[in-house]
Amino acid sequence: MTRKNIWSLLIMVLLGVGISWYSLRDVKLSSLMADIVTLNWWWLLVALGCIALYFGLEAVVVRKFVRHRYRKYSFLSALRVPLAEQLFNGITPFSSGGQPAQIFVMAQSGIDAGRASSVALMKFVVFQAMVVLNFLFAMLIGFHYLAAKLSYLSLYVFFGFLIHFAVIVGLLLVMYWYNFTKKAVKVVLIPVGWFMKAERFAQLEANISIKIDSFYEESLRMTKDWRMLLEVCIVTFFQLLFYYLIPYFIMRAMGYHGINIIMVTSLNVLIFLVTSLFPIPGGAGGAEFGFTALFAKFIPSHSKLILAMLIWRILTYYLGLFLGMFAMAMRPQKAEEIPIVTPEESVDEVE
């Protein structure tokens, strides 16, 4: 990690401490301690298991994308990818650092940089597709509650959906309408050139063109293997499901029974979309506000609501930051590229 990244991490931790302190300003320490003592730690372990499965299943996805071209790529090496992604998503605005971090970590393990970029992009496409799919289910189940009880959040949810949907449409255009997309990107970039030096703009245009070409070539290869793509979609769906279930198990740890698991899970999907709108790294402030606003009905005790929110943020945000630090410090294990044998080489070997 660079000095700039370390400072970003420290700032986010301090910001988290400040938000936590502000949230606890109206909570009596005696009430908070009583709530902590009465926690059901078994349910908290289940919640912890959910976030572990979230990271672990993403590592499974990475291995599925890599296994056709590399051998001896261990699960531990693959696990470094989502953890590094969590770290750099959490310390950069709009989670912009996650993609480069994944590519860097895979390159450390011996994966070609171009191949690593393609894997990160395809993983991103599948992830976004499953986010949109989950959102559609959540809309059917939980949006009426959101519109009736918290109408002011409905607009944020709608904009969050539009952002994720626009990303999916853009990526699908690259996959299935390549020539049009290349021309459209050039047109869209014209106003950007008005505010940049010609040399820097040309470099930006070239980099974007390379990324589009790389993604297009990789998408052609990936879409030919429908079985693998289907497996990755299923794994990613369950990866997100375990993440969305975390608030339910936290509520069970608080001693609340008879909670509608489908409604709680659906509302957490909506929080995910609201959080994505905030440019502050990790959606700091927005995530805490969304959680307390949406789950206040299910957790009527204010002290328990704040405690539940803090536990949720520790599991879904801060844990990823600290595990990501350890992942970046780990010595990478080198994978071996599987040589591609051409038909001509096969004939020569037979002769």
From TrEMBL:
GO biological process: lipid metabolic process; response to antibiotic
EC number(s) per entry: 2.3.2.3
Primary location group: membrane
Molecular-function GO terms, alphabetical: phosphatidylglycerol lysyltransferase activity
Pfam families xref list: LPG_synthase_TM
Keywords for this protein: Antibiotic resistance, Cell membrane, Lipid metabolism, Membrane, Transferase, Transmembrane, Transmembrane helix
Transmembrane intervals: 41-62, 124-147, 153-178, 228-250, 256-275, 305-329
Function field: Catalyzes the transfer of a lysyl group from L-lysyl-tRNA(Lys) to membrane-bound phosphatidylglycerol (PG), which produces lysylphosphatidylglycerol (LPG), a major component of the bacterial membrane with a positive net charge. LPG synthesis contributes to bacterial virulence as it is involved in the resistance mechanism against cationic antimicrobial peptides (CAMP) produces by the host's immune system (defensins, cathelicidins) and by the competing microorganisms.
Family: Belongs to the LPG synthase family.
Protein name (database record): Phosphatidylglycerol lysyltransferase
Source species of the chain: Lactiplantibacillus mudanjiangensis
